[in-house]
């Protein structure tokens, strides 16, 4: 709702999105016409039946002896029963189509579309957008959208049909009574739409407060130890109480407004009912307009039938704002700019030469990070990237792997411009072991074979052996078939790291990226990991991001990064000699000792 | 239910009022068809305009009265549900914050979170619906049937019988609905979990070109979820048409039998009229509403029951709040004698035979790998849990005599996670000492090497930190919690892995400043880094829950294999 025209655009977009299911919507409409037509027929039959009963009784209780046409009455009853049954069955048919086609199209298909979209979105989008937000678009927003579209289309198809049908029929029966009904009907619509709009304002406030309340509760519970250690219970309780109070006040008003819609609609319906009884009664008694008791019955039933579609329209109004907001978020994600892929070149040959030529890069236009960076790395060399926390060491990885694209300059792998080949081809040259050990929920075997699903069992075991994790895996009750998931507790952080190393081993790519792979690991595992990694780096070009300088003193090139830019570059000896920033960092770790 | 009822008790007057109002407003619906039948029988048939207008006026009066009652009901209900929700939400939160660690961890963070948000919400939404429901449904069903009986006993009976028939047919349809919904919920969780996994591993996934594979896994979960949701919605979708069909067919039967009875002269003499038969047909619509509401309760109640039992589970946990202490400071000497610990319900000894003493004014380090028991020991030092065996004492006084409040007044700790709360930077530091002046806060931030951060933002100390510190880095969170820890007046300061996200240069500066700021106070530094531990007065080496060595760096290098190994692996052979 940033611009006034966008709600309209969003509604149009939703309508346009029904195109793939247009065929089914037509079928649903046809079924719906049958259902509505049959249900509109029933008051007509009841009219005939009521008239038969009334005329017979009117004569009989006055003492006259008139025959009752039992055969005709029974025939009409059978037609009535058939109309009821037919209308219900067609209604069920429509419900089935709506559930299976519309709901599926607007929830399941959109969700899968969003998941598919992520494949084509740049890493930048995923880095920038909190994961929870993406997930909530995919679940909550889509669910709101699906529910509303479902009831919206249903109302559009059968509700409108019903409204029109009733109008025509009651006018044919008696224009004066019909006039009374039709004056009262829009009145209730007008009131309920008006009130719904007002209550939505309060509900928006309730949702906002509820979000804050959720966040506060989450914060308090997840930081329970800090809360206890600093006696913050009272503080958090006070804040929670204040939020609760604000939420109560808004909820009270919103609930009230929302719940008075029903009585107001009921009153107008009742007034219509009464008007029909009085006017109809007078007409029949005076013999005006050919009015009969059966017509009064039919009118009463038609007036009641009007309530259904009207209520769903009123409800639609109250949900509209919320739905549009959700739809906008969903469409915004689906419309995000996608990555473009070049295909002029194929994968690098697999030698391992890397060259940066005059590379400029920034995450944020306002803050240039890397300017004119040139590096040349020959196959088999080890490049170390060091610098303080948050200084931008991972930027180099982001550029190498094309998680982010450079603003200017060129990057070559094995002499090929990486911007002239598909990203997936470029990435075939790399293996990565990152600080956050990422394993997916699945078996250990599948996790190791992740980069090479075609690997033989022997190769997978060999990779595990090289990563010093084979014995451990075999000690598990299910061995290689052990499933790793969120609840996995019998595998330590270090062992998970070794699994990612085995994965990198098996993938067997010419260039290796190691990003602080040994932090947060206990000593013994660390020794193991260090040994395995030295093994892994042999004969490969490697980029190592390290916290601990002892592991990288033998690097062919050390890039020192601070505040996002490369401040120094050279071998360990040369950099120490220079006595600059690197020397300061290097000495600081020993300074702690003295 | 027993635990929830007290919360409703505060509203019993209002609840009674809304029940009465509800009865009045619903009765009108039952009366209208009756009045209509009298218009037909006494007005139209007799050609008496007066009767028509009189009954018409009565109907109008009833309709107005009903609306007024309904409006009042809305007002009262809005108060009840908003108030009840407010009370229950607050009650749950207060309860949860008064729990001790043992009970807290029994339910867990995410469990408590759903219980105090989603579950409470569901219950309070249901509460007001439920009140209307228990009053409206019987009136509609019983009132409708009674009035139908008054018109004609046989027709009323048919109507009365058709209600259980409809319910009987519906019951098997809605019976397993909650199971389907539960299944679909499980797939929603699965889809979200896979999505979270994918988003967090996006780099690895792309590096191995596995996006298609991950997308396939998610799409599968989404398909399964849709399958169950559609199945559940379809079942629910049968409720209305089937209800209507059963009751409508009952109408047809009533009409057929009604016509036969009308031809019976005896009944005619007894007062059966066409108007009465026509009115009974209208009662069908009333009962239909009641039956549909009832069948929805079959769907909703099992879900509500789950929520109620989960909320009750929390509300019945024993309270164990810690009142703030008086702030008396004891000498900062900590000593542990034969301390052993196992988590309640666990068979594994996390700590055993811990004997250690840290003298007042010393800086001690506790070093060990992951899972060695360092953080567990900290929990005992903060009196989050009592030790299973042995005693801990501060300044010569055992923890049991001091009490948890006094312990936490004396021991100030920066916890591993580096927790910050929504609020300003100033607020977050002041949590350690509510009486601290801005100058004191600035000084503490300066010691924590956060001055550069606070000065880089124009708001300075008023810079707002987002919920859980989403707008700052992990290292910054750690340093804010360090500032909070040191500004608290205490005798022992503990830093649990608080420097892990800092580079050596920053750590070195911070430690120097810390030693100046906390001069004379006891410091305990828990770490995995040898470089961090080395310079401390005394180092305790923890492995698998036991102390395997203690002393200075030089002494440990001579005597402790584990320590030597740690140092070698981290600093290379030359250190």
Structural notes for this entry:
The complex is a heterodimer of chains A (594) and B (575). Chain A folds into three domains: 167 residues, ABC transporter transmembrane region fold (Up-down Bundle); 116 residues; 238 residues, P-loop containing nucleotide triphosphate hydrolases (Rossmann fold), CATH 3.40.50. In chain A, 64% of the residues lie in helices and 10% in strands. In chain A, helix 3 runs antiparallel to helix 5, helix 6 runs parallel beside helix 9 and helix 13 packs across helix 15. Chain B is an alpha/beta fold. Chain B folds into two domains: 311 residues, ABC transporter type 1, transmembrane domain (ABC transporter transmembrane region fold), CATH 1.20.1560.10; 238 residues, Rossmann fold. Helix content of chain B is 66%, strand content 10%. Chain B is built from 22 helices and twelve strands. A six-stranded mixed β-sheet of chain B has the order 6-9-10-3-11-12, with helices on both faces. A four-stranded antiparallel β-sheet of chain B has the order 2-1-4-5. In chain B, strand 4 and strand 5 form a beta hairpin. In chain B, helix 5 runs antiparallel to helix 11, helix 9 packs antiparallel against helix 11 and helix 16 crosses helix 18. Chains A and B meet through helix 2, helix 3, helix 5, helix 6 and helix 7 of A and helix 2, helix 3, helix 5, helix 7 and helix 8 of B.
Q: Give the overall shape of chain A.
A: elongated
- Might you state the CATH topology name of the largest domain in chain A? Rossmann fold
CATH class of the largest domain in chain B: Mainly Alpha
Number of strands of chain B: 12
Q: What would the principal axes of the Cα set say about the shape of chain B?
A: elongated
Q: Which stretches of chain A of 5+ consecutive residues score pLDDT under 50? A: 1-5
The rounded distance between the terminal residues' Cα atoms of chain A is 62 Å
Number of discrete domains of chain A: 3
Approximate helicity band of chain B: 55-70%
**Count of β-strands of chain A:** 12
Strand order of the largest sheet of chain B: 6-9-10-3-11-12
User: Alpha-carbon distance between the termini of chain B?
Assistant: 65 Å
CATH architecture field of the largest domain in chain A: 3-Layer(aba) Sandwich
Sheet bearing the most strands of chain A, described? 6 strands, mixed
What do we call the CATH homologous superfamily of the largest domain in chain B?
ABC transporter type 1, transmembrane domain
- How many discrete structural domains of chain B? 2
Strand order, largest beta sheet of chain A: 6-9-10-3-11-12
Secondary-structure content class of chain A:
alpha/beta
State the largest interface: A-B, 157 and 165 residues
**Which ranges of chain B are low-confidence, i.e. pLDDT below 50, for 5 or more consecutive residues?**
none
Let me know the average pLDDT of chain B: 83
